[in-house]
Design a protein that fits this description.
- This protein is an all-alpha fold.
- Among the domains are: 88 residues, no CATH class; 65 residues, no CATH class.
- 70% of the residues lie in helices and 2% in strands.
- The protein has 11 helices and 2 strands; from the N terminus they run αααααααααααββ.
- Strand 1 and strand 2 form a beta hairpin.
- The longest helix has 24 residues.
- This is Factor VIII intron 22 protein.
- It comes from Frieseomelitta varia.
């Protein structure tokens, strides 16, 4: 309780410095530094949510000063503090009903992504932020949304693999299979066989996963795409054997 009151006092004192006064401009740079310092104090006291609030205000100050790099740095740090606060609450068995910290983190990362939009050389960073948030959110609709955003900005193997994993954990096997199909088609269409390198290993894993997904979905032969039929033929062989008048099917995975 004492730490919270101390924080509120310091927070309001800094905020008051930003109020416009007659013939005097507020010292925004100084306020930004003080918010950052207060955030460090809160972090040391494990007041993660308060640290996030301070960093968010520091980011707003940097936005006023038009320092985009400092603004992005504070926004990302703020988002991470809110994620830590959310995790700590869950670890002690007291998750927030309104998910305020999660929503605050999504807002911070979202604002950072918006600021990166159309900035030259920021694609990799933007995709990385969306992926980081997706990993923190886990296999949820919000996590899947962030993964799709990351892949749209800058597709990576990790993002695609995680998206497939999230769909499988959600029980959406059709979407998982479609993503794998699209990825395999892209690699086979645009990357020469001799230049695939590690992609050969990745393609092999994709094929095995597609076989397993097909075994779960069990589509009818009429609805099975030719490419998937070829995958099944490659990874399975059928031998009819007579055993007490019955036929058995043997499936071998290589």
């Amino acid at each position: 309780m004492g730490d919270s009151l101390d924080f509120l006092t310091k927070y309001h004192n800094i905020s008051n410095k930003l109020k416009k006064r007659f013939l005097r401009k507020p010292n925004v740079a100084e306020a930004s530094d003080q918010f950052a310092t207060l955030a460090t104090e809160c972090e040391q006291k494990e007041l993660w949510q308060y640290a996030g609030l301070c960093l968010l205000d520091a980011a707003r100050c940097q936005e006023t000063l038009e320092n985009i790099f400092s603004e992005l740095n504070f926004l990302i740090k703020a988002g991470r503090e809110f994620l830590v606060a959310d995790k700590k609450d869950k670890d002690i068995g007291c998750p927030s009903m309104g998910q305020e910290n999660t929503q605050a983190a999504i807002s911070c990362f979202g604002h950072a992504l918006a600021r990166c939009h159309n900035q030259i050389g920021f694609n990799t960073m933007s995709a990385g932020l969306a992926l980081e948030l997706a990993l923190a959110l886990g296999p949820t609709p919000a996590g899947i949304q962030q993964l799709c955003k990351a892949i749209d900005i800058f597709p990576t193997i990790k993002a695609i693999n995680t998206l497939v994993s999230y769909h499988i954990k959600q029980g959406d096997y059709v979407s998982a299979l479609q993503i794998l199909n699209d990825f395999v088609e892209f690699v086979e269409s645009y990357i020469n066989v001799g230049a695939r390198g590690n992609y050969s290993v990745i393609l092999h894993r994709c094929e095995v996963t597609r076989v397993l997904l097909l075994l779960i979905l069990q589509p009818s032969p009429q609805r099975l795409a030719p490419c998937l039929a070829q995958v099944l033929e490659k990874y399975a062989w059928v031998e009819e054997t007579t055993n007490n008048g019955k036929c058995s099917t043997i499936l071998l995975f290589t």
